[in-house]
Amino acid sequence: MRVLVVDDELVSRKKMEIIMRTFGECVAVDSGKAAIAAYADAIVKGKSFDLITLDVSMPEMDGTEVLYEIRKIEKRRNIPRGSWPKVIMVTAQSDKETVTLCIQVGCDSYITKPFDRAIVAKKLVELGMNTQKPVRKSIR
User: How many structural domains compose the chain?
Assistant: First the structure.
């Protein structure tokens, strides 16, 4: 599984990155603009992400704006809906308005801060994602 972690807050970003590395390959960025660039670059290189964790509250460009732009890229490139990465919004706010907005812009689920590995793993299972990190075979 390839994961893109997007969070402007260093501690939350590093924590999610460490958790996600237990499930697969992980790229972490600190802003919405960096997320869009990383996503577009991955598509061009044919190494798209399977999952994106996206912080809702970020300066300059919040998580819902980032997700909207990512969905525009997918539509513009005619990427079939079934091939889009799953998106988990990460938020410190669990109010109904925030959750509703996240779902309206196209997220698949959300996690409320603070989170831990068990919470993340449960969300991945709910989304039907493989939580087993592939075993690399050594070449002899």
Answer: 1
The amino acid present at 136, given as its one-letter code, is R
**pLDDT tens profile 89-129:** 998 877 788 888 888 888 999 998 899 999 999 999 999 98
Q: Note down the domain range covering 65.
A: 2-125
Q: Compute the distance between CA of residue 54 and CA of residue 25 in angstroms, rounded to an integer.
A: 16
Within-domain flag for 131: no
List the beta bridge partners of residue 4.
27, 52
Question: pTM (2 decimals)?
Answer: 0.89
Question: Which of 70-89 are b and which e, b meaning 16 or more Cβ less than 10 Å from the residue's Cβ?
Answer: bbeebeeeeeeeeebbbbbb
Burial of 99 (0-12, 13-18, 19+ CB in 10 A): middle
Q: Which residues contact 119 (CB under 8 A, 6 or more apart)?
A: 111
Q: Quick check: is 138 in a domain? A: no
Residues 6+ apart with CB under 8 A from 10: 30
Residue 7 lies in a domain: yes
What does the H/E/C string look like for 22-49? CCCEEEEECCHHHHHHHHHHHHHCCCCC
